[in-house]
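Example 3.
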Amino acid sequence: MVPQTIAWITARGLFGRRRFLLLIPLPLLVVGLAVLSRGFGVAPENWAQPVLVGLGLAVVLPVIALIVGTGVLGSEIDDGTIVHILTKPLPRWQIVLPKLVVATAVTTVTVSISLYVAGVLAHSVRLGLGLALAGLVGSLVYSALFLAMSLLTRRPVLLGLVYVLVWEGLLGNFVSGTRVLSVQQYVLTIADKIAPTGLLQSKVSLPVAIIMSAIFAVGFTVLAIDRLRSFSVAGETS
Amino acid sequence: MSDVSLLGVSRWYGNVVAVNDVTMTLRPGVTGLLGPNGAGKTTVLHMMAGFLAPSRGTVTIDGEPTWRNPAVYKRLGLVSEREAVHDFLTAREFLQVSARLHRLPDPEAAAQRALELVEMTGAQDRRIGTYSKGMRQRTRVAGALVHDPQVLLLDEPFNGMDPRQRLHMMELLHRLGTAGRTILFSSHILEEVEQVSGTVQVIVAGRLAASGDYRAIRRLMSNRPHVFAIHSTDDRRLAVALMGQGSVTGVEIDRAGLTVRAGDYGSFTRALPKIALAEGIRVRQLLPSDESLESVFSYLVEA
């Protein structure tokens, strides 16, 4: 009963906030561009990379995971309602895990459907499924990361954006070593290995992608649980 | 019956000491935690509620530490100062969620009982976002009471309540205290503490300045003059007689009666009836005019 209750109140909070509306246009953009490209008969080699990877995996997935992942816990910390959840005799993993599940589910549903549609339009159902499945893995890993960030810093959205835009987006293109710590690269590799089409260029090996995804997901979840255990409310300093 | 104990507790933030070597034990009944803004009341409450680690010392409820120990919330309820409640829920939903998270056997009944306790049944199906400040506060109190905790901690609980709600809340705290719950509420408003509880813990600048029954604390500070307003059948003659008393440090007389300053509470109150009897004066009224918590408090702050 406890996990469902936490999940229910988390989902209610998430969908009740206005910033949830931000989730809608981005996936639509991916599908829209794919439909247009296909409609105008552009060769998939010319649009698959920028739309599927450049927009879908590099922007839409992490940004939506960021909005949702920081929303499930970060918003409650911001407005102070987290105190109502924490003053219950619950081991902290029973709070973190349902929130992680909600974040992952919402991100996956939002992102993977559009990736699936765009993948089918670009090549085949197999590519669509590959992207959708990789999107699921990516949603889980990013959600764990951003959920933990909500407990590590007061500015999780800012820090998350720096990770996505600067680390993955910028450094990932120029400094090859950073790719080992890039969720985007894991997702790309997983999609590419499920559906080897030549449209996606993966840069890390599959074992690295799988092992690092697992380490990220488990590591940041454990970190989040531990940080929530020591959650402090600062006293009034006035 | 539960006790909350602080033993040699200090809390600092960098170089700033917020709470300095505080030792206190809260027993069943209502205790007021009193102090000016910034004295460290909220820090003490947060440490008691397990939301802040003491830098030094131990904070326990019935011997169990509160920090990193969610099990204490079975016995503990907290009403924090921040008003935040899940606005998108109705009061009933909010309380049912609380009850479920406490794993209560019958969450609906527990929610209903808590709503009745704070008289919120009338608005229970409206969203909390539409409530007035006082209604939100009562909803939060109900949330902290849903599992019938042995210990209830409230940070500035009367803020934003109108006088009727305030009175009702005071009665509720009284009732819970009388029923054997350990209640601590913080306040910087003296009348509140005075009306709800006789026992106070006074915190000034992070230190425990006084502890116990506030009237007793007042009497202990015998070096401060105590002021009494006296009405009698012959104020002027009584004034003359009182001036002969060693314990009296000053007498003022005006149309309203006598204002007497006494250096020592005990000997003055013992001497007055004898003097009146000897002079054949009938004392109609004797009011310790500075017995309010306000004066206790300002003495402590000055000291």
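Chain B is about 35% helix and 30% strand. Residues 4-218 of chain B form a domain with the Rossmann fold fold (CATH 3.40.50.300).
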